[in-house]
Amino acid sequence: MNTFLIRTFGCQMNKHDSERVAGLLRAAGMSSTDRPHEADVIVFMTCCVRENADDRLIGQVASLKALKPRRGAGPLIAVGGCIGQRDGERLLDQVPHIDVVFGTHNVSHLPALLEAARAQGSAQVEILAESTDFTSDLPAEREHSWHAWVPITVGCDNFCTYCIVPHVRGRERSRPLEEIVAEAAGLVSDGVLEITLLGQNVNSYGRDLYGTPRFAEVLHEVASTGVQRIRFATSHPKDLSNETISVMAETPAVMPYLHLPMQSGSDRILAAMNRHYTADHYLSLVHALYERMPGLALSTDIIVGFPGETDDDFEQTLRVAEAARLDQAFTFIFSPRAGTPAATMEPRVPTSVAKRRFDRLVELVQRSALAKNRDLVGTVQPVLFTGVSKRDAAVLSGRTPGNKVVHVVLPQGSDAKDYAGRIVDVKIDAAQTWFLSGSLLGTNP
Ligand code: SAH
Ligand code: SF4
Ligand code: F3S
């Protein structure tokens, strides 16, 4: 076993775990490749939050049939992440040529499971009910040297009625504050410019350890390590405190960007979703945020077609989305997940109705995003360059503090590599719905 390839689906938690899988396999003496036919080990880090995520995994694993006609031939195939956790042994019935199934609580066991599969020539399945350690304690191979994911909590206790996450990630557990700060300090001395703090609900950080949430303190302490940019996800509106809003507003390293999922603008539907807030509460938070941070970029998640959603409920969602002046929204059609309460709730919204609502919502979000982007034309933004644009290698691509993609023409004679991982001032010249264009003003000291 010399080379490995990792395919990652789903949320940032999986991206983080994939970096740890890469670190573990590298520590076991392997190196990475991006060509499936050269890989000795292929690891899938999977997501089952919606049905289409499930389908994609089965399609991808099945498409390896040519590389791996049977067990014992071709690369070892390991399936981990949330589908591994949910399905365990059952995955072998669906795709018989899988060699290892592991879950969200035993990432650190992957090298041993692969070794056993190789030595014994038989499938290895190990799913644990809960974790004893945090994956953050494992070695990491980070995708970008300047960026790091730092989980502050794992799991979720909220049990929104549509959501599978608490079932596959377990109960919410916070990492001790000193441990988070020590990790952040280490990353800064390693050259990391941007840290993204992760948790399914970062705002409840510390409740299990200290009795009261201490997320505002996490922001404050991580900023004191000298890191240039702090981002975090996800914030649950029921737990976003005034104290956190104040620390965001007063701490320059905390980026003026917030992902605050609203899910719906109807109080009836929010109650059926078990979200524990009202549309008015959501809008009062938005109001307080813009008052303290007029330049804030706001994004959200919205589900349309939740069981029982009427035209009137949906109109409420449009109203709240409009009033929130969103910069971006991740919009989803309700997808029933077996084992969650909403999967059996009635009446189901017909697909054609859900699709019509979805299209109207997307149209509203696009208008809102373009309007917010236009506000930035003429301003100067410190942009953290990430590389070249996917479509054009002569165009640099980076992110503003508000997390917007910016494209800048690569200066004649320069190399894109010189910009990647650097923060440079850019004058914003034009706005599109999903990106900005600008010109370089120079290099920040
Ligand atoms: N912990 C985060 C992210 C959860 S999953 C949070 O609370 O926001 C990301 C998004 O997927 C959710 O915010 C929700 O909008 C969407 N989602 C989750 N389950 C879904 C389902 N069954 N059908 C459709 N969308 C779903
Ligand atoms: Fe799922 Fe709700 Fe937890 Fe988010 S807060 S992970 S939507 S149960
Ligand atoms: Fe998906 Fe698991 Fe994240 S279900 S959204 S990868 S926690």
Would you kindly provide a written description of the structure presented here, covering whatever features stand out?
With 445 residues, the protein is of the alpha/beta class. It folds into 4 domains: 124 residues, 3-Layer(aba) Sandwich (Rossmann fold); 112 residues, Transcription Regulator spoIIAA (2-Layer Sandwich); 116 residues, Transcription Regulator spoIIAA (2-Layer Sandwich), CATH 3.30.750.200; 61 residues, OB fold (Dihydrolipoamide Acetyltransferase, E2P) (Beta Barrel), CATH 2.40.50. The protein is built from 14 helices and 19 strands. The chain has a 6-stranded parallel beta sheet, with helices on both faces. Strands 15-16-17-19-18 form a 5-stranded mixed barrel. Strand 13, helix 13 and strand 14 form a beta-alpha-beta unit. It is globular and about 60 Å long. The N and C termini lie far apart (45 Å). It binds S-adenosyl-L-homocysteine, iron/sulfur cluster and FE3-S4 cluster (F3S).
Short summary:
The protein has 445 residues and is α/β, with parallel strands linked by helices.
The dominant shape is globular
Q: In percent, how much strand structure appears in the residues?
A: 15-25%
Rounded average pLDDT: 95
| CATH class category name of the largest domain | Alpha Beta
Which ions and ligands are bound to the chains?
S-adenosyl-L-homocysteine, iron/sulfur cluster, FE3-S4 cluster
**Cα end-to-end separation:** 45 Å
What low-confidence regions span 5 or more consecutive residues with pLDDT below 50?
none
Share of helix among residues? 25-40%
Secondary-structure arrangement, i.e. CATH architecture of the largest domain: 3-Layer(aba) Sandwich
Based on secondary structure, the structural category is: alpha/beta
Strand order of the largest sheet: 2-1-3-4-5-6
CATH superfamily of the largest domain: Methylthiotransferase, N-terminal domain
Radius of gyration over all CA atoms, rounded: 22 Å
What fold name stands as the CATH topology of the largest domain? Rossmann fold
The number of helices is 14
